[in-house]
Design brief:
Elements lengths: L7 E2 L3 H5 L3 E4 L7 E4 L5 E2 L1 E13 L6 E7 L2 E7 L4 H8 L5 E14 L2 E13 L2 H21 L5 H10 L3 H23 L8 H9 L5
Helix pairs in contact: 3-5
Amino acid sequence: MRLRREVARRVFAKEFNDSKFKIGGEAEREPTYVLTPLGLKCNRVFIVGALLEKEETKNEDVLRIRVADPTGSFLGFVGKFDPDAKEALAEIDVPSTVAITAKAKLLQRDERAIPFIRPESIVLSDFETRDYWILETAKATLKRIELMNSDNELAKLAKEKYNTNPEEYREMVIMALQKLREETEITEESEDFDLDSSIEEEIMGLDDIY
């Protein structure tokens, strides 16, 4: 029987990089999930950001990448285990805007935890898609923040594991939206740029978090 693929979740780099715990994976063929400080349980993630680094590792079959969003950057490794992603990456220059669907991974060594991604697919993207990804990820993050004071089981587990301060992540969302707004205002000054007005409308629609 073919296993159903996990939904690729949207998460900002800071929340993902603050992750130190994983759940699941104890039974045979049971998926393993990264648990973020806001209670997101992710096996796969969807990211749109700037590919800033693409370097060979000591293992010549594996490339190390960094993909940035307004809150930080994702560390990733692309190798022979995902040939489609590796082949696509070979044709993409640095820097470029990319959309990535990836496995969420957590390497745990003693008391140290290193979150990283293992891309399944990488494609060139554009600024408009990146802007909408930021907005949708901001909305999803705010929903998780609101759940932190509820009886949601994942939220309670995250609070127990991380002693999460939701305001830290609310400030992260504000910073991401401020950067997007500032960039949008700068870009609008270009005479040949036709901005989709719905982007600015959606940013304004999130003003209640400020």
